[in-house]
Amino acid sequence: MTVHFQPVVSPDACPALVLNADFRPLSYYPLSLWSWQDAIKAVFLDRVNIVSQYDKTVRSPNFEMRLPSVVSLKTYVKPSRQPAFTRFNVFLRDRFTCQYCASHEDLTFDHVIPRSKGGLTTWENVVAACSACNLRKSDRLPDEVHMWPSHRPFQPSVNDLHQNGRLFPPNYLHDSWVDYLYWDSVLEP
């Protein structure tokens, strides 16, 4: 006799993809995901529609519900025209590559004109840099250490980040999300 055990799946391993009212993800970078608790709360507050569900069910003494895997907002949220200046978005703009040596390891961000010399924390003055290059450059100007970024830093558009993001699909995509994301064409053999 063969016994098959179903793997125990924690609800924490069941995030919900959040779509805008037009069925596009609220964001791709990072991918708009809610915890199962936030998704259920939004359902009860009547802020979302359940589009797809996991096989996983949560129960209480007087309630049972399959966990949502995809939800859509009932009210359309206008997307931002300019991406937020975040460490992740700087790395994405620079394709997760040190702008001094092309390494992909241990990335930080570097002020091309150091803050100690009046440099600002802006799209036009910050680049991805590996720790070794950042340490080597220190608080000196590029001319002083003969280190210039391989690409001039710039403020990316949302489209720029989307284009770069296609090169870096998430590590995990649930089957129910694929119809709402463009990575599926990248991941197919």
Model description:
The protein is α+β, with helices and mostly antiparallel strands. The protein contains 6 helices and 6 strands, in the order ββαββαββαααα. A hairpin with a 2-residue loop joins β3 (48-60) and β4. The chain is elongated, with a radius of gyration of 21 Å. The model is unreliable at 1-8 and 184-189 (pLDDT under 50).
Task: Describe this protein with a few key phrases.
189 residues, alpha+beta, two-stranded antiparallel sheet, elongated
Brief account:
The protein has helices at 36-44, 87-93, 131-137, 142-145, 158-165, 183-187, and strands spanning 16-19, 33-34, 48-60, 63-73, 107-111, 126-130. With 189 residues, the protein is an alpha+beta fold.
Largest sheet: 4 strands, mixed
Measured distance between first and last alpha carbons: 37 Å
With helices defined by DSSP (H or I, 4 residues minimum), what is the helix count? Answer: 6
- Work out the helicity level: 10-25%
SSE series: EEHEEHEEHHHH
Unreliable spans = 1-8, 184-189
Strand order in the sheet with the most strands: 2-1-4-3
Oligomer: single chain
Kindly name the structural category: alpha+beta
Could you report the average pLDDT, rounded to the nearest whole number? 88
User: Number of DSSP strands?
Assistant: 6
